[in-house]
Amino acid sequence: MANRLSQIATRTGDNGTTGLGDNTRVSKNSLRVHAMGDVDELNSQIGVLLCEEMQPDVRELLVEVQHQLFNLGGELSIPGFELLKPEAVALLDAALEKYNARLPRLAEFILPAGSRAASLAHVCRTVARRAERAVVALDQAETLKESPRQYLNRLSDLLFVLSRVLNRNRPDGKGGDDVYWKSERLARTDTE
């Protein structure tokens, strides 16, 4: 495989622009660059999450997600190009169904807490939501394919579900639970 990056410090961005995959230059503050950056940050956060101990099937899924996010970043970097396929969205749908089926129904809102791995999955979820908002904003300015928006939407849902899975499958063997929000309204209802 040929080297795709031969030089990192090009100094071509010193004027506040960056090059896209089609060799056009745009402002580093453009909607497209914001979307690319949020997707890159999400991929990096998932890399941090992968430093934690977790069950092998969850790890394998998250590694696949990283590859698909790289495809998404590539697609965003080349206007009009498609790298993220609908099959990637279907994989997330299947994973959502699989992992949701193993979890108890939620009785209340949960806090982004519990084990370190679960908490990191929540951080990834929030970054996925931000990346989704950036892609939606870009899509309102320039027409995009459906898959990027759908993928980020499903992925944020999956990361929420995986946070619950990670809380229950801790490396120490002590199964945990969700950390529930203590709602004042519900507390009053329970005592009345």
Helix percent reads: 55-70%
Tell me the span between the first and last alpha carbons.
69 Å
Strand order in space, largest sheet: 1-2
Q: Oligomer, anyone?
A: single chain
Summing up helix and strand content along with how strands pair, one would put the structural category as mainly alpha
Q: What percentage of amino acids are in beta strands?
A: under 5%
Tally the beta strands: 2
The low-confidence parts are none
For the residues shown, what is the average pLDDT?
Answer: 86
The biggest beta sheet is recorded as: 2 strands, antiparallel
The helix count comes to 6
Gyration radius, in Å? 19 Å
Throw out a few tags for this protein.
2 strands, two-stranded antiparallel ribbon, single chain, 6 helices
Outline the structure in words.
- 30% of the residues are buried.
- It is built from 6 helices and 2 strands, in the order ββαααααα.
- With 192 residues, it is mostly helical.
- A hairpin with a 5-residue loop joins strand 1 and strand 2 (25-27).
- The protein has a two-stranded antiparallel sheet.
- The model has no long low-confidence stretch (mean pLDDT 86).
- The protein is 59% helix and 3% strand.
- It has helices at residues 31-49, 56-77, 86-101, 116-141, 146-168, 184-191, and strands spanning 17-19, 25-27.
- Helix 4 (116-141) packs antiparallel against helix 5.
- GO terms for molecular function: ATP binding; corrinoid adenosyltransferase activity.
